[in-house]
Amino acid sequence: MLLAASDLIKVVPGLMIWTVVCFLLTLFVLKRYAFGTIQHMLDERRDRIRRSIEEAENARTEARKLLEEHRALIGQARGQAEQILAEARKVADSQRQRVKEETEADRQRRLEETKRQIEAETHRALQQIRTEVAELTLVATTKVTGKVLDDADHRRLIEDAIKDLDFSVLEEAPR
After folding, report:
1. Three-state SS for 173?
2. Overall pTM > 0.85
3. What is the pLDDT of residues 144-169, one digit of tens each?
């Protein structure tokens, strides 16, 4: 084994020359045909990577810009929504007030109409009471005197009976 190891380390000038010639020939062929193509492919790849990085940076910058615009638009939309809600509340309040006023006016109108109807019914009832009092007075007078009276006597007796009665108490009572 020692012998074999020493053969490997032994300097053989012919083998060394052929090894150097083969190395230089391989180096020339690689430099002439392979290294240029490999270098060109490496340069293209480096350029593509650089362009991709620049595009990514541009896309990131654009995305940040769009995000800021989006946030600003959302802020504006919220402000507009709050403004619309405030206006809607104002409109609702004014309509609520208008309906309340209309309801109150309608209630007052109905109250006045009811008062007028009550007054009309009171006057009608008083007129009917006057008529019935006059008729009762005639009947009572006829029975007391025992004679039949003519129209002039009837009118005079009715006016005297009604004149003595105080109907103003009846007119003021329902009010």
Report:
1. coil
2. no
3. 777 666 777 777 777 777 777 666 66
